[in-house]
Design brief:
With 359 residues, the protein is of the alpha/beta class. It is 42% helix and 17% strand. It contains 14 helices and 13 strands. The longest helix has 18 residues.
C-alpha cells in the first residue's frame, strides 16, 4: 500500500512532529511518502534520516493556488497512491482537489483544530469535505465541531487521536537545567496569538508580586515572539522568563520543570501536552481539543477554562502550594494515561482501517 501524507510545511510544529514520529514505523508492505506544499526544514531532514521519502514542492500554499493544485495532480497521477491523506487547511484544500482530479481511490482530509472560518471559507471547506472519502479529527471536540459546521455523515467522520512514540529511557535532565531556586514552569509552543502565552506571563507577574519565586521557560519560536518579549519587559519580569527558541528536543526542558502549561484558545490534540504527560511532567491545560478527553482535573493533571487569566493564576498558585510528592503522583498518573491509551500502534491500527476503507 502506497500512502502519501501531505502537509503545508515540513519544518517544525505539531503536524511536523507527528510526521516525524510516523516516519519511524517499519512495515515492508507500506510505502510512505511525506510531502509538503511549501518548505521543509527540521522535520523533513529527520524523516529522511528515518529512511522515508520526502517531496517538497516549495509551491504557493495560500488558498487558492491553481498552480499548486496542478503540480499536486501531476505528482499524484504519476505516483498512483492508494491513499492521499492531507492535514491542515491549505493541504486539505489543494490536496483533496488534486487527489480527486487524479483519481485517487481513497482521499482522507484531516482537520487539526477548530478554525474560525468565515462564511465563504465554510462553504469552500464544505465542498472539500464532501469530496473527501473520510474526514478525520484529532479529538471528539474537533469532530463534533466538523459535524456541526458541515453536517459530515458520521460514517465518514472519524476520531483519530494523536500518539506518542515511547522511549523508556529516562532522561538525565536535572532541575539545575533551569532555575533550581524557583518553581519552574515550561511551555513548548509555536509563538502565535492563538497559543495565549500572554496569560502565563501575566500569571508569572502576579506570582512574583506576591513573592512566590517562579521561573517560566518558553520553548518555541514564531512571529509573536517580539510581542511577548515586549510584554515581559512591560511586566518587569525579565529575570523570571527565558525564551530558548525552537528546540529539536524539548524533553530536557520538560523533565527539568515542575509544571508544564498549555494555554491555547483552541487546539486539536496537542503534541507537546502528550509529550509532557509522557515524561511525567505535571501538566496544566486549558479545556481545548482533546485535553478534556485525556485529563481528569486533579487526578492526572489540571484543567482550566480558556481565556480566563484570573482562573489560570489561581490554578497555578494552588498547584505550587501542593507538596512535591502529590505533584509527582499526578505527573506519574498523566504518564500512565499516555502509555495506556496513546501509542503509535493504536494510532496506526485506526488509520489502517480507514486506509483500507474498513472503518
Amino acid at each position: 500500500m502506497k500512502i502519501i501524507r501531505l502537509s503545508t510545511f515540513l519544518d517544525f510544529g505539531g503536524i511536523e512532529s507527528k510526521m516525524v514520529n510516523l516516519s519511524t514505523t517499519t512495515n515492508a508492505q507500506v510505502e510512505w511518502i511525506f510531502c509538503a506544499i511549501g518548505k521543509g526544514g527540521v522535520a523533513s531532514e529527520k524523516i529522511k534520516a528515518n529512511g522515508k521519502r520526502v517531496v517538497l514542492f516549495e509551491s504557493a500554499y495560500r488558498i487558492p493556488s491553481l498552480l499548486t493544485i496542478y503540480r499536486l495532480y501531476r505528482f499524484f497521477k504519476a505516483e498512483q497512491p492508494d491513499v492521499v491523506h492531507t492535514s491542515g487547511a491549505e493541504a486539505n484544500f489543494h490536496g483533496v482537489l488534486a487527489a480527486r482530479w487524479a483519481g485517487v481511490k481513497n482521499v482522507v482530509a484531516e482537520e487539526i483544530g477548530i478554525p474560525k472560518h468565515g462564511f465563504l471559507a465554510q462553504k469552500i471547506f464544505g465542498v472539500i469535505f464532501k469530496l473527501s472519502h473520510y474526514v478525520l479529527g484529532e479529538s471528539k471536540m474537533v469532530c463534533d465541531n466538523l459535524y456541526k459546521l458541515y453536517a459530515i455523515p458520521k460514517q465518514k467522520l472519524k476520531i483519530v487521536s494523536n500518539f506518542v512514540v515511547f522511549s523508556f529511557e529516562k532522561g538525565s535532565a536535572q532541575k539545575e537545567t533551569l532555575q533550581k531556586d524557583f518553581f519552574t514552569i515550561v511551555s513548548v509552543s509555536r509563538l502565535e496569538p492563538v497559543k495565549n502565552i500572554e496569560s502565563v506571563l501575566k500569571a508569572a507577574a502576579k506570582l512574583t508580586s506576591e513573592k512566590i519565586p517562579v521561573h517560566y521557560t518558553i520553548v518555541g519560536e514564531g512571529n509573536h515572539r517580539k510581542v511577548l518579549e515586549a510584554l515581559v519587559a512591560a511586566l518587569q519580569i525579565e529575570n523570571n522568563v527565558t525564551f530558548v527558541g525552537f528546540q529539536s528536543d524539548p524533553v530536557p526542558f520538560l523533565q527539568a520543570s515542575d509544571l508544564y502549561v498549555l494555554t491555547s484558545f483552541t487546539e486539536g490534540f496537542s503534541n507537546s501536552l502528550a509529550e509532557a504527560l509522557y515524561n511525567g511532567t505535571p501538566s496544566l491545560t486549558t479545556k481545548v481539543g482533546a485535553a478534556e478527553e485525556i485529563i481528569t482535573d486533579n487526578q492526572n493533571g489540571w484543567l482550566v477554562e480558556a481565556a480566563d487569566d484570573e482562573a489560570l493564576f489561581r490554578k497555578i498558585k494552588s498547584i505550587i502550594a501542593l507538596d512535591s510528592e502529590t505533584r509527582k503522583q499526578i505527573g506519574q498518573a498523566g504518564r500512565n494515561t499516555i502509555v495506556e491509551n496513546y501509542s503509535i500502534d493504536k494510532h496506526l491500527e485506526t488509520l489502517t482501517a480507514i486506509y483500507l476503507k474498513k472503518a
